Task: inverse folding
């Protein structure tokens, strides 16, 4: 099967999706186990309060991902379209131009970072005084530099997705997590707590693996779209950026809704509460990860099916995804009742997760997975206007809603996933309506844009 996956280019759309799901489940499953092993190793090395700072920093640096202005997702759709039409020359232009555009953005961000990071009071940002300002500055600059370098090398995952080989990202993640777990074990055995050393190892290893993947795959499976400076054409960048700009809006709003929880908890409460929230979220996020594995191959497959007018395949695939979603809800319920026992067995008594926090995270993940089904469809067919419209509404009300829950209703950390849940309910209804209209050829106006 693996040989067929890497060599045979004539597999059907359904065969490719099934192979991707099987390989992704295997390697992402291994990655989940390694991530679970990494968390107690990291907490033991840093202690819970410093670990909370590390998690908050990771979330903050992750914001830099939005500065690709949606170009990566624009490439995914445009390259998928080129491959469906067997226009490999245009595909090579799209890939080459994207690498140059992302590299230019990265250089600009690095310049701004190196000039401006001294002007920020990082102890205030992380709401902590038990780590010196100079040490925080070193960690921020190390993590940011390697994250931005990986920003470029991770384009290989987008190219792989366009070839309907999304499981490659799971394979690379598994290799990366294996290296990180081994490094953390060595750190625990050989050194005392050192946030700077930890930041170097946890950022350089994923970058080197991603960089190696670029050299390997562009010499083999993706050779027909191998990037080259002579194929860079900024005229074609307009179509990538035009589509990408819509994804960019969604990325910013997604950042506001999904990536601010750790920072808000650090500000409203303290870094230790960030650790409690993060452990609970990582426990339940197993369902998100597994559901994403099942869902991810369909984005590019929806693109191909839509351009080939194969609406029956789309409807059959969506019914299959509904069944996956129902199964995920059942598993979430089981995990909820086992949560106290599992988290204590996993982490010990260092972390306390409340009933309210568990319940609110479960509700949020259930509705988030439902929305992801229709987001994958609308992203694949490039009909983003409705998604942008309701995402803007969610982005506007999310943080104020958190503020009301915490400051006026005196809710605990469960206020953050609860706010996310209420915001996502809006999209759960609207996104289904748009899907129904598109597949039945009744979408007009904003529903078809």
Result:
């Amino acid at each position: 099967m693996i040989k067929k996956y890497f060599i045979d280019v004539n597999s059907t759309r359904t065969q490719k999706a099934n192979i991707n799901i099987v390989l992704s489940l295997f390697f992402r499953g291994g990655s989940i186990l390694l991530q679970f092993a990494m968390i107690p190793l990291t907490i033991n090395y840093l202690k819970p309060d410093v670990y909370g700072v590390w998690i908050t920093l990771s979330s903050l640096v992750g914001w830099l991902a939005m500065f690709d202005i949606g170009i990566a997702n624009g490439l995914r759709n445009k390259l998928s379209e080129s491959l469906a039409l067997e226009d490999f020359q245009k595909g090579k232009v799209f890939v080459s131009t994207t690498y140059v555009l992302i590299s230019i953005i990265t250089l600009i961000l690095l310049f701004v970072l190196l000039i401006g990071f001294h002007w920020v009071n990082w102890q205030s940002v992380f709401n902590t005084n038990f780590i010196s300002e100079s040490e925080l500055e070193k960690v921020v600059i190390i993590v940011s530099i390697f994250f931005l370098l990986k920003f470029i090398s991770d384009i290989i995952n987008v190219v792989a997705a366009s070839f309907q080989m999304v499981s490659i990202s799971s394979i690379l993640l598994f290799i990366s997590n294996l290296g990180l777990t081994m490094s953390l074990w060595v750190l625990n055995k050989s050194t005392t707590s050192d946030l700077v050393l930890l930041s170097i190892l946890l950022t350089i290893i994923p970058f080197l693996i991603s960089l190696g993947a670029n050299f390997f795959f562009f010499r083999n499976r993706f050779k027909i779209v191998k990037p080259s400076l002579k194929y860079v054409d900024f005229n074609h960048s307009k179509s990538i950026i035009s589509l990408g700009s819509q994804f960019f809006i969604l990325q910013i709003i997604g950042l506001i809704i999904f990536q601010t929880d750790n920072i808000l908890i650090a500000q409203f409460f303290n870094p230790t509460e960030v650790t409690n929230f993060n452990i609970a979220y990582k426990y339940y996020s197993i369902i998100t990860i597994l559901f994403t594995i099942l869902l991810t191959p369909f984005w590019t497959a929806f693109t191909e099916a839509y351009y080939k007018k194969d609406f029956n395949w789309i409807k059959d695939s969506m019914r299959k995804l509904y069944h996956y979603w129902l199964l995920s809800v059942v598993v979430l319920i089981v995990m909820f009742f086992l949560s106290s026992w599992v988290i204590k067995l996993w982490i010990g008594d260092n972390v306390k997760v409340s009933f309210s926090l568990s319940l609110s995270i479960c509700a949020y993940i259930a509705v988030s997975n439902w929305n992801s089904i229709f987001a994958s469809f609308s992203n694949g067919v490039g009909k983003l206007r409705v998604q942008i419209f309701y995402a803007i509404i969610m982005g506007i009300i999310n943080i104020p809603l958190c503020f009301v829950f915490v400051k006026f209703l005196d809710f605990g950390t469960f206020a953050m996933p609860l706010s996310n849940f209420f915001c996502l309910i809006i999209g759960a209804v609207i996104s289904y309506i748009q899907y129904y209209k598109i597949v039945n050829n009744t979408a007009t106006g904003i529903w078809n844009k």
About this structure: Residues 385 and 449 are 5 Å apart (CA to CA). Residues 271-307 form the longest helix (37 residues). Confidence is low (pLDDT under 50) at residues 1-9. The chain has 17 helices and no strands.
